[in-house]
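Hey L., structure's done. Input below.
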Amino acid sequence: MNGMWPAVVVAVLVAGVVVRRFIGEPLRARDLFVPPVVLVGVGALGLVKDVHLNARDVAWIVAAALAGLVFGALRGLTPRLFTKRGHLWQRYTPWTLLVWVVSAAANAGIGVLAVAAGTPEQARPITLSIGVSLLGEAVTLGLRALATGTPFAPESPSSLDRVLRPAARLTGPGPHAGHAPDRPDGSPGRGRTVLDGAARVAAGWARDGR
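Output:
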């Protein structure tokens, strides 16, 4: 059951991000860059720990990563950026959904070719595939945001915290010493941010050899 946690967390995380961005949400630098960096890190860690790669496997991984970056960068051109309450907001458009579908189909096609060439399926973890794609989107969207001259939205607890904190409690030990406690109003303190939760998830998976 523990082996299913990475896929479950990734599915919930991505679904939550996509839904919120279609509705429209403040554009925060943390929410834009932390999830792809964490997913890429977890996926790369799984490759290093669990898969014996040869030159052919590495070539397919690089090809898939490049395709994911390109499609992610293209997808980053499609959300609508607008100013609300003095800072940037973003909203996905139908073009964004179209690029998601095309990129998923391309990724699946590369996977079929890679497996046919003898590359093990474990060499293409879902965390790495989605993380690379989100990273390409984050870079393009971040550059577009900087070009507007409007500031990013201020950091605050987000849906990503609520997604990752329960998983962190299940996969990792209790709060580390030095973590800031929750505030009196119930919102997480600075030490309980999404970055902290994601780091604890990754540490738990690494410790279990997942």
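The chain has one domain: 2-208. Residues 166-196 have pLDDT under 50 and may be disordered.

-- N.
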